[in-house]
């Protein structure tokens, strides 16, 4: 087995309890968050509140050029005029945006340091996360950029990638080192005014990853970013910009964790993918932000805008495994602009306790013979609410467009909810759109059947959930799939006992 | 091997088993017959440890050990196997994966390492041949879209894989055509040994032509009202259950 697995060494204990639905529900509520530790690192945190001065201060702190500062200010002014959206099927106390600190950097972070010089406390944190940076260096085929709170701490494999002409670095560095690329593409897929959170992110984003794959290059390794919110009362607003030039290929992985805290932490990221003619991007996310405790206290508010644009013959696949966050609002989308372009969305969303997820995708067919596939698997337990919201839009010029959507929901217990909101807009008569949906429940008879064959309840649920999610798990890069499977086990049956 | 004493069990406060006494020794085949609603399937579930049923009185012993506090999966590890009347579907989980998990869980309980893949494959090949199962079938999702006959054959395949001490076959003959019945029965006969025991639950004498029981018991109203040799099954076939009902009512 790959050493990559050790990054996410999830330890959990198993204790047998006889299964009844009542008991199962009780057990699920006692789940402890695996990553609920807080690392005491001195950090450099801005005062709370948001105004033009703060936006300028962030830009200054990052030593940004004037155009970037102006771009942020423009976004801030737009944001001020916007209202927080309320259409999602989630209920929460709106964050007070003046009570959040918009910049928090571990003091010891210095991009010029080599990995060996990284603060031992930070290293300890990675170790707890299961990511040893030291180890990272030795590992093959995964280059990692780690964002703690607001700053990119270390990017491994920079040199190896540079030989291929691949740029993979914190976006803060890219703004300085590759301003022409950043200027050209930032906001080209998700403009500042796109939505409330995207505008906020555009104004205050502090770091994130930047990646450029040159023409005709197949990125030889999986690129990976790891996000973690550490500091209390801070928001994390990372911005990822990934450009795959003509006929290039890249597979990108994104992982997220946050410590357990009583108050809600805000995470509002923007991810923009640009797949130029003939390019292919695979973007996989395993999101494990703190989901709040069993009473629904704390947890991360995850309001994320992810969108890709596909030029001619390009292909973008979004694969996500969402197990964390108190509230999730997230719709990784594809604009299929070029003829024959392909968009795919594969998703597993698990909610437990009081978690709420409103997630799905948008497939916007503009070009001819564009194709999209949506496979969404929602698993709800506890008192959680899990919604799929998806839009398939076929524009008038998109002759021969095709879509296939499948939304399956799996329920555990009687107090959770699964909802499906599919929107279909077809303005072209040649469009072919298929939508399938199922809802099922893990039954006591299924559990007993497994028990009778010697499989305990914990393992039985894992087996059933993994079977249910198989089509999506199969889309993840192999190492990631094994982890994701483990994560599903933790989110659901790690709690059974 | 299996000793059931004065077993009472109920579901939702309704008593279904009302004092069952049964002893099954190694190497024996017992048939339990009886009209619908007499408690046959309940007895099978209770022996397997299904917690939907509450044991209110009496005991079940396996090789001298009281099973009262033993969970269903531990009973399985100790060698209790139930071939279900209505096997459930588990989408996305292949027969092979399911069996691999089941076998390795049992091994883990015994402190053994996972079975090496090579041995697992060999075992699968051997047992699927025994039951004339096409191996493509084993990659399909467990029971999903299986015909009635395929489900039952799959149950017996699992029995072959797990090699239980006591196998309870709950209406394994229902839904089988004559060819499938012959294959399943010959599978069971090949698996039978002096060290294990089989309990057949059935409505009809038909299955007993292929798997010949040493003892036949008639269950009625949650009690065994008559026991005998294999000729009792023939008598039942001929006369139905009514005469017994009358006899016990007296």
TrEMBL record, chain B:
Protein's UniProt keywords contain Ion transport: no
Keyword tags: ATP-binding, Nucleotide-binding
> Which Gene Ontology MF annotations are present?
ATP binding; ATP hydrolysis activity
Instruction: Name the PROSITE patterns on file.
Output: ABC_TRANSPORTER_2
CDD domains given for it? ABC_FeS_Assembly
The record, for InterPro entries, names: AAA+_ATPase, ABC_transporter-like_ATP-bd, FeS-cluster_ATPase_SufC, P-loop_NTPase
ABC transporter domain location is: 2-246
Query: According to the lineage, what is the superkingdom?
Result: Bacteria
Which is a Pfam family this sequence falls into? ABC_tran
Q: Which family does it belong to?
A: Belongs to the ABC transporter superfamily. Ycf16 family.
Please give the PANTHER family that the UniProt record associates with this protein. Answer: ABC TRANSPORTER I FAMILY MEMBER 6, CHLOROPLASTIC (PTHR43204:SF1)
Q: What is this protein called?
A: Fe-S cluster assembly ATP-binding protein
């Amino acid at each position: 087995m790959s050493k990559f697995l050790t990054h996410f060494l999830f330890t959990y204990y198993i204790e047998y309890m006889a299964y009844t639905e009542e008991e199962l529900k009780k057990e699920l509520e006692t789940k402890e968050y695996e990553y609920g530790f807080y690392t005491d690192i001195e950090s450099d945190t801005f005062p709370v509140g948001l105004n033009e001065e703060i936006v300028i201060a962030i830009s200054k702190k990052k030593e940004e050029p004037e155009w970037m500062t102006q771009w942020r200010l423009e976004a801030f002014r737009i944001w001020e005029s916007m209202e927080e959206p309320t259409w999602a099927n989630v209920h929460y106390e709106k964050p007070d945006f003046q009570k959040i600190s918009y910049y928090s950097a571990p003091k010891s972070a210095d991009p010029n340091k080599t990995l060996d010089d990284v603060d031992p406390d930070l290293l300890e944190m990675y170790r707890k996360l299961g990511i040893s940076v030291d180890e990272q260096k030795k590992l093959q085929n995964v280059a990692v950029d780690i964002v703690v709170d607001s700053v990119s701490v270390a990017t491994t494999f920079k040199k190896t990638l540079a030989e291929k002409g691949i740029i993979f670095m914190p976006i803060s560095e890219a703004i300085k080192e590759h301003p022409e690329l950043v200027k050209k593409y930032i906001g080209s897929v998700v403009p500042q005014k796109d939505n409330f959170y995207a505008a906020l992110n555009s104004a205050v984003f502090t770091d994130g990853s930047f990646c450029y794959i040159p023409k005709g290059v197949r990125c030889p390794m999986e690129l990976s970013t790891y996000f973690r919110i550490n500091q209390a009362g801070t928001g994390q607003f990372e911005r990822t910009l990934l450009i795959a030039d003509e006929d290039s290929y890249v597979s990108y992985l994104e992982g997220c964790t946050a410590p357990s805290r009583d108050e809600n932490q805000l995470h509002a990221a923007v991810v923009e993918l640009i797949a130029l003619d003939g390019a292919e991007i695979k973007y996989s996310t395993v999101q494990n932000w703190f989901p709040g405790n069993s009473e629904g206290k704390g947890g991360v508010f995850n309001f994320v805008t992810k969108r890709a644009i596909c030029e001619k013959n390009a292909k973008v696949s979004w694969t996500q495994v969402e197990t964390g966050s108190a509230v999730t609002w997230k719709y990784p989308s594809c604009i299929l602009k070029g003829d024959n372009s392909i968009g795919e969305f594969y998703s597993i969303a698990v909610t437990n306790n009081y978690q709420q997820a409103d997630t799905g995708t948008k497939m916007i067919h503009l070009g001819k013979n564009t194709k999209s596939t949506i496979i969404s698997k929602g698993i709800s337990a506890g008192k959680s609410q899990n919604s799929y919201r998806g839009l398939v839009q076929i524009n008038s010029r998109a002759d021969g467009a095709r879509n296939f959507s499948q939304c399956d929901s799996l329920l555990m217990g009687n107090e959770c909810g699964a909802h499906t909101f599919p929107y279909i807009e077809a303005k072209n008569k040649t469009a072919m759109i298929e939508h399938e949906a199922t809802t099922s429940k893990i039954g006591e008879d299924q559990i007993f059947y497994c028990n009778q064959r010697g499989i305990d309840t914990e393992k039985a649920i894992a087996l059933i959930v993994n079977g249910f999610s198989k089509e999506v798990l199969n889309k993840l890069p192999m190492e990631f799939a094994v982890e994701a499977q483990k994560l599903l086990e933790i989110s659901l049956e790690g709690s059974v006992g | 091997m299996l000793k059931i004493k004065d077993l009472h069990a109920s579901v939702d406060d309704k008593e279904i088993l009302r004092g069952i006494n049964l002893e099954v020794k190694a190497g024996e085949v017992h048939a339990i017959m009886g009209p619908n609603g007499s408690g046959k399937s309940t007895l099978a579930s209770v022996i397997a440890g299904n917690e939907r049923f509450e044991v209110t009185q009496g005991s079940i012993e396996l090789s001298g050990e009281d099973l009262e506090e033993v969970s269903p999966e531990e009973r399985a590890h100790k060698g209790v196997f139930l071939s279900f009347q209505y096997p459930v579907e588990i989408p996305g989980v292949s027969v092979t994966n399911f069996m691999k998990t089941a076998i390795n869980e049992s091994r883990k309980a015994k402190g053994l390492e996972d079975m090496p893949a090579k041995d697992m494959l060999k075992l699968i090949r051997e047992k699927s041949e025994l039951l004339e199962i096409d191996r493509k079938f084993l990659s399909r999702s467990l029971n999903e879209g299986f015909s009635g006959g395929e489900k039952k054959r799959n149950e017996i395949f699992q029995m072959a894989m797990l090699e239980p001490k006591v196998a309870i076959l709950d209406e394994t003959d229902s839904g089988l055509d004559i060819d499938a019945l012959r294959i399943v029965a010959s599978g069971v006969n090949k698996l039978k040994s002096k060290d294990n025991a089989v309990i057949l639950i059935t409505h009809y004498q038909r299955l007993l032509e292929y798997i010949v029981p040493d003892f036949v018991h008639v269950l009625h109203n949650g009690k065994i009202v008559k026991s005998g040799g294999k000729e009792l099954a023939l008598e039942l076939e001929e006369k139905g259950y009514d005469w017994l009902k009358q006899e016990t009512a007296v």
